[in-house]
Amino acid sequence: MTETRRLGRGMTWTFIVLMLALAATCVWLGNWQMHRLAEKEALIAAVDARLHADPIPVPPSTEWASLDLEALNFQPVSLTGSFRYNQTVTVFTSLLDGRGPASGPGFWVVTPFVLANGGTVFINRGFIPEDFQEAAIADGDNGDAQVTISGLFRPGEKAGFVTPGPNTSDRIEWVRDPVRLAAMVDPALAPIAPFYVDLPASAPGELPQGGETVVEFPNNHLGYAYTWYGFAIVAVVMLGFWIIRERSDRKG
């Protein structure tokens, strides 16, 4: 008769400790996800309140170097100055489920806006279908008229590892990054703000089609927390069954 091989006492306790450590780690990860859930819900509530607030004056250029960009994300701001339409840059995009009639492959129309009190902010005037790209950059008007506009404050986008370089001849960029956009315009427009502003929707059917800001925060933390807590329960239950079987084998 073949004798059943069992773990020694030292190995048995090592296995028990490892399984309990695994369960404790899963519980810690679940608690961390719950903490992240609370932070995400607080962020969503803060942004929602910010979106419905009255516009504040855009921060002056003297404060740009020390701005907390994320703290102002989606904050309505007002700006006084003048557009430089002849310096417009188009940023490729593909608009899905647009709020206006235009959608599909196209471009964001981003135009420098020279502030009355100094400095330049890039203004995302809205979306145009790709067939209108050449017309968007052909405007030779300097737009010296002073106007006051309002829109949503947005931190600049960051280029990814595979993001192409700019197409300077056709004035096409791939991300709304003020640093990259600044390289496409007249250096005399400096200083350039480290953020841009999205304009709201204009008249129906008018291009560029504004009001296309996406306000979305993925929030899967509760599901992740339940998953980690589930792993912890499974680890403890499996350990319990294993201990019962080991005791039964030893008695046998």
Automatic annotation (TrEMBL):
Pfam families: SURF1. Keywords: Cell membrane, Membrane, Transmembrane, Transmembrane helix. GO terms for cellular component: plasma membrane. Its main location: membrane. InterPro entries: Surf1/Shy1 (IPR002994), Surf1/Surf4 (IPR045214). It is a multi-pass membrane protein. It comes from the Bacteria. The chain crosses the membrane at residues 12-30, 226-244. It is found in: Cell membrane; Membrane. Belongs to the SURF1 family. This is SURF1-like protein. It comes from Devosia psychrophila.
